[in-house]
Amino acid sequence: MSAPLADMRRLAEMADYIVPFAVRVVGDFKIADEFAEGPRRATDVAAALGLHSGAVERVLRALSVKEIFAEVEPGVFALTPMAEFMRSDHPHSLQGTFPLMPDDVQAWAHTAHSIRTGRTGFEHVHGAEYYDYFVDFPEECARFDRSVQTLHVLMVRTLLPAYDWGSLETLVDVGSGNGAFTAELLARYPNIRATLFDLPHVIGRAREELTKAGVADRAETVGGDFFERVPPGADAYLLKTILHDWDDTRARRIVEVVGRAMAPHSRIVVLEAVPLPGDAYDIGKVMDIKQLVLFGGHARTEEEFAELFAAGGIRLNRVIRTPTLVIVEGVPEGAAEGGRA
Ligand SMILES: C[S@@+](CC[C@H](N)C(=O)[O-])C[C@H]1O[C@@H](n2cnc3c(N)ncnc32)[C@H](O)[C@@H]1O
């Protein structure tokens, strides 16, 4: 194919949302699990799952073009290395990572509103901000929570070796979700005690994760609002993928609340994307559009973090890049100078 045609095809394939939707239904219906023992007829899989046989075959065929499945003979499909990650029993399973959430999709349908106004499509269509809206939809809220947590194996693998977690004795996980990351942290470092802090209707799910990891005796769960207060005096305040959800006014408010809770020896440890300048590859730059359309926040550069921290009396101390998220550490202003990694 000539270069311009190849570019046209690439653009057309990237621009269409057929594949993202197809991948999401495959995940939601756990279709990849049906192929764990080897190739199978799409019609048999559809019958086993109570789905429409022609539709399942068409979805699998479409995804085979993208090497997510392979059509090994007409109507018979097999997993590819990519599809293996869609199995729910894979140790690094992404089966629940991309749920098809109709409320999100409705917000994406109003991306034009976001581009015109800088405000979320989510609030435009649902009349409420993301986290407020899901209070009334616990099942969807749990699916969202799970989608965030499914990436935690990858996060744990990259973020645990990159920071001196072992030097901490107490940690508050601010906006912990179901707390899978901190549960793993506690399992790895027996000297740490943690408080998991999230909205009252969310925090209930954290106990289960802590018990599963065998660390429930070193963690407490607290329901509350991080715009009001967080538990005081911990060695570290962990904010994993929190600040990017909020505009500058509200992010500043969270940092002020954390700043007030910090003791002179405390640190704030933010884990999220920090885009690199220029057009270097950085998934954070892509995810930033999700912040624009769904949450109303944005990704921040190192300079923007320094400014944000300053609002809470915190000095940006170190920025550590890992293959997944970036670790941004801050200490109370006036604390001893630290090295930049
Ligand atoms: C993107 S999730 C991140 C969860 C977790 N830190 C992680 O990375 O897996 C954002 C979390 O912030 C919580 N959250 C939102 N508003 C909050 C508030 N006002 N007070 C406390 N937690 C809040 C949500 O319930 C959600 O669990």
UniProtKB/TrEMBL annotation:
GO BP terms: methylation
Domain of life where this protein originates: Bacteria
Residue ranges of every copy of the O-methyltransferase C-terminal domain listed in the record: 108-313
One Pfam family per UniProt: Methyltransf_2
Keyword S-adenosyl-L-methionine included in the entry's annotation: yes
Active-site residues, record numbering mapped to chain: 244
Record-annotated O-methyltransferase dimerisation domain positions: 17-86
Cleaved signal peptide residues: none
One Gene Ontology MF term: O-methyltransferase activity
Transmembrane segments: none
InterPro entries, sorted: COMT-like (IPR016461), COMT_C (IPR001077), COMT_dimerisation (IPR012967), SAM-dependent_MTases_sf (IPR029063), WH-like_DNA-bd_sf (IPR036388), WH_DNA-bd_sf (IPR036390)
PROSITE patterns with a match to the protein in the record: SAM_OMT_II (PS51683)
UniProt keyword terms in alphabetical order: Methyltransferase, S-adenosyl-L-methionine, Transferase
Protein name: SAM-dependent methyltransferase
